[in-house]
Amino acid sequence: MSSMQNLSSIADFYKTDKYEHGYTKVYEKYFDNIRDQKLKILEIGIADGKSLLMWSDYFQNSTIIGIDIHKIDIQKKKLDRNNIKVHQGSQSDEKFIDEIISEYGSFDVIIDDGSHLKKDVIKSFHLLFPHLNDDGLYVVEDIQTSYNHFFGGNPFDLKYSNSHMNFFKHLTDRLNYQEIANPFYVGNKYDAKITNISFYHNLVFVRKGVNDKLSKEVINHSYEDMKFSEKSSRTGNSFKYYLKYKIFYKIFTLVFLIFTMIKRILLLRF
Ligand SMILES: C[S@@+](CC[C@H](N)C(=O)[O-])C[C@H]1O[C@@H](n2cnc3c(N)ncnc32)[C@H](O)[C@@H]1O
């Protein structure tokens, strides 16, 4: 197929459902300016191989690696191309994923179009995100399964259930982790590693990158400490500001923390 075709026409040609779901229009926004680069693209879930053929035509200088839990007949599905590699294994099998990583190293784009089960979506993210290059994209398709209990989602508690959609919603806090004014803040392994998370209809995009700029609002996750250091150095009046920020405001923060903890326990929100 011609390298001049846009992604949606290639998708339409191969009849991949990424076209009818409207995903290819979104992908074009991210991929049009990198399509000629030499990238390593991993897609979880091959099925008939339609999307692998689409990526292979679109990213002609890249290597497309597909993994699937089922055996894929490469000849029958016409996947025997130089820039397509196929492996059989589960997206949440740590040993298998380790083998893929030792063979290919890190990736520029990872697309999860596998089982769409909560346990697999979240486990694969934990296993694979560390092996995404900086500025790389991690995409999860069909995240609407989060609203379906047969996929491990929860249609009855959209806010507090531990569905895969909520996993990605909570990941957005990692963007602003420096500003969390909780002096007892416990770090998270994704702090400083995500620069953007975008949600589309049934799709999530997570952009990896360095996000470690120090906050101007808090110091060591404490608003009081920041204010104390700012005001006392500006005015030279340490005692007054010590009483105000290190004692009075700190007590307020501790009371607020205790109140929030009691509320969470009573509402069984852990
Ligand atoms: C939606 S289809 C993939 C469609 C393909 N990406 C496309 O767009 O043409 C999902 C595929 O994921 C595979 N799959 C299901 N569970 C899996 C798992 N745990 N690990 C890897 N692949 C899995 C299925 O065998 C199936 O082929």
Can you walk me through this structure?
- There is one protein chain.
- By secondary structure, the chain is α/β, with parallel strands linked by helices.
- The protein folds into two domains: 7-208, Vaccinia Virus protein VP39 (Rossmann fold), CATH 3.40.50; 223-266.
- Helix content is 38%, strand content 17%.
- It has nine helices and seven strands, in the order αααβαββαβαβαββαα.
- It has helices at residues 7-14, 17-20, 23-31, 50-58, 94-104, 118-128, 164-171, 223-235, 238-266; strands spanning 40-44, 63-68, 84-88, 107-112, 132-141, 194-200, 203-208.
- The chain has a seven-stranded mixed β-sheet with strand order 3-2-1-4-5-7-6, with helices on both faces.
- A hairpin with a 2-residue loop joins β6 and β7 (203-208).
- α1 (7-14) runs antiparallel to α4.
- The longest helix has 29 residues, at 238-266.
- Bound molecules: S-adenosylmethionine (SAM).
- The site of S-adenosylmethionine (SAM) has 21 residues, from β1, α4 and β2.
Helix-strand makeup class: alpha/beta
Give me the Rg, rounded. 23 Å
Query: Which CATH class of the largest domain applies here?
Result: Alpha Beta
**What is the H level of CATH, i.e. the homologous superfamily of the largest domain?**
Vaccinia Virus protein VP39
Compute the separation of the termini in Å. Answer: 52 Å
**Overall CATH architecture of the largest domain:** 3-Layer(aba) Sandwich
pLDDT averaged over residues: 96
Please report the total strand number as a whole number: 7
Count of individual domains: 2
Strand line-up in the sheet with most strands: 3-2-1-4-5-7-6
Order of helices and strands: HHHEHEEHEHEHEEHH
Tertiary shape:
elongated
Main sheet: strands, sense, barrel: 7 strands, mixed
CATH topology of the largest domain: Rossmann fold
Report the total helices. 9
Q: How much of the sequence is in beta strands? A: 15-25%
Indicate the percent of residues in helices.
25-40%
